[in-house]
Amino acid sequence: MIELGSKAPDFTLPDPKGNLYSRDQVAGKHGLLVVFYCNHCPFVKHIREKFAEISAEYIEKGTGVVAINSNDIENYPDDAPERMAEDIETFGYRFPYLFDETQEVARRFDAACTPDFYLYDASLELVYRGQFDDSRPGNDEPVTGSDLKAAFDALLKGEKPSEDQKPSVGCNIKWKS
């Protein structure tokens, strides 16, 4: 896992319509959440409605949010940009959902799975890299986003989130051969 305190890697990536977004454009006055995301993963499907709700709440509070799909779309066509556009519409994402075709951005972040969350403070230093909550497909735990929300709330209070962070669990990023 990337070390806490690490600077957010720079990136410029397109959304499904071809609009380019850079790290600095998507960052908010209080920081930036970068989440590695996709359409087909059961772990993403399990949280996406709650994630859309929570991300909208913290965007309103001045935190930037961006989702990045780095999966190999040749072998996983459900993750192709046109399908990303459908999910943006269906789930009302208020954050840019970007496509990392070369997978270079995922490598810079040391991203391992979907979903994988990285929360940076206003100086773009990493303060949280962990799970959404304890819910998993099939474990009957409610989807609350409690771990991520606690990190967001600490950030907004000017505090550091707890360093006791549980890693994200999900589908591994589908790397190209």
From TrEMBL:
Residues 157-177 are annotated as: Disordered. Residues 2-157 form the Thioredoxin domain. InterPro entries: AhpC/TSA (IPR000866), PRX-like1 (IPR047262), Thioredoxin-like_sf (IPR036249), Thioredoxin_domain (IPR013766). Gene3D superfamilies: Glutaredoxin. One of its GO terms (molecular function) is oxidoreductase activity. Residues 157-166 have a biased composition (Basic and acidic residues). This is Thioredoxin family protein. It comes from Natronogracilivirga saccharolytica. The lineage of its organism: Bacteria, Pseudomonadati, Balneolota, Balneolia, Balneolales.
